[in-house]
Amino acid sequence: MPFRFLIVDDSELVRQGLRMVLQANPSWEVCGEAADGSSGVEMLKSLRPDVVILDFQMPGMNGLETARRMTAVAPKVPILMFTQHASSELEQHAREVGIRSVVSKTNAFRMVGIIQTLLEEKQINPVN
Amino acid sequence: MSERVNVNILMVDDQPGKLLSYEAILSELGVNLIKAHSAREALDLLLKNEIAVVLMDVSMPELDGFELADMIRQHPRFQETAIIFISAVHLSDLDRMKAYQRGAVDYISVPIVPELLRAKVSVFADLFRKTRQMEMLNHELRTLSAQLMAAQDEERRRIARDLHDSAGQLVAALSMNNGMIQTEEAKLKPAVAQAVRQNTELLEQLSREIRTISHLLHPPLLDEVGLLPAIRTFAEGFAERSSVSVTLELSPDIGRLSPTVEISIFRIVQECLTNIYRHSGSKTAEIKIWPVRDSHLTVQVRDEGKGMPAEVNHNGSGARKVGMGLSGMRERVRELGGKLEIQTSGQGTTVVAALPIVTAVAIGA
Question: How much is the ipTM here?
Answer without folding.
Answer: 0.88
